Predict the 3D structure of the following.
Amino acid sequence: MTNTEQDRWSRVKGRLRSSVGEDVYTSWFARMDLESVEQESVRLSVPTRFLKSWIQAHYAERVLTCWQAEMPEVHRVDLTVRTAMRCAAPAKEAPAPVDARRAERADGRPAPELRATAPVSASHDALGGSPLDPRLTFGSFVIGRSNTLAHAAARQVAEGRRGDAVMFNPLYIHAGVGLGKTHLLQAVTWAGNSGNERKVLYLTAEKFMYGFVAALKTQTALAFKEALRGIDVLVIDDLQFLQGKSTQAEFCHTLNALIDAGRQVVIAADRPPSDLESLDDRVRSRLAGGLVVEMSSLGEELRLGILKSRVAAARAHHASFDVPEPVLDYLARTITHNGRDLEGAINRLLAHSKLNAQPVTLEMAEREVRDLIRPQEPKRIKIEDIQRVVARQYNVSRSDLLSSRRTANVVRPRQVAMYLAKTLTLRSLPEIGRRFGGRDHTTVLHAVRKIEALVSKDAALSEEVESLKRQLQE
Ligand code: ADP
Ligand code: MG
């Protein structure tokens, strides 16, 4: 290969990079090499068959155009798969045309022809999903006011077929512990895979992380990425646990690649995308760009529904097990916390009535579940809520609070809002600064100190702040 050719190749890569953007470029083209240039045709290689077919399907035209910009005489780009074994490969792996896409172009010339020379079996075993619980299906998911929308969206996603237009992508569900996120995500996975038409992969963020790290160590990172990109629906649970710069970069690429390719992504986390502090802004905005649904705490009716469905499920194996209506009402009224405790309560009653061969009574229930009855958990307060309530109180808009305006009528409310954000949430100063129009953490600190000082002297302000706290906590 001559120096001129190498120079040209560098320039072509530069053109590609600016044409598709940095992310796409690194995802798909970073490992593309120039093999040879012969008059009208150029031979490029990529390390795997997956990359080959992806580039072939999505970027063939683009690659050719970039070459033609440097060398107008080029009319064909061949894409081959190189392997470490290529030199030793047996003769039967000679060039063979592979589903050459010969669609006519607008100008009547044939589309660039892409051929594969050495088929490689990319490992698709790189990714085992996380284990699924057979009980967590749509059938056993009880619908109530707090989860109607999340359920409907999840159903919609689960019922999609390969090739359907994706309605909301990603679907992002957030809720506190035990409110049914995992249940809903696994239901999507079961439903999606039962038709066997689409490949749905359920992964906890941890599994994504460790799978990726392990893959890196064993040099199969590419196989892992490919396996990930070869699926129709990616379901990621507990995204708040995703950590580490390189994992996040990888997650970002994967997310972009999947969404851009029209694959569905479903995500659950314990907080909204804007509160995922460790993620970078691009990922956050991508996550917020689909449908974000919150499931709020389980209402009493829903709790009763869940209890009944749990009892029914238990009765399938233990026909004599019965929980009288007043006991169910009692449990639904008192165990307000989350779905896990409801399940725990039924399990205890079952165990107790089995072991002691006694029917379930209200008295037994009161004794057995005493420790599951917890005081109301303080409400999760969000920075948005604080901004909304403060803006309303002082008759300014939320965007005033985030703006750089420094007039007195917005400066004070803004400081109060920052102060409340610091005292009512666990967010850090830099995070609060970011959420207030990208301010520095020292500005937030200044606001917090200022309001602290004022509250101790100024009774009217102190009363205002207390009233705001009450509004936020009720
Ligand atoms: P999360 O992942 O949000 O922490 P889970 O999905 O693990 O919560 O739910 C905790 C328990 O509550 C599970 O046993 C789940 O089946 C049950 N549960 C929560 N919401 C519902 C619901 N709407 N219908 C039926 N069971 C539910
Ligand atoms: Mg969960």
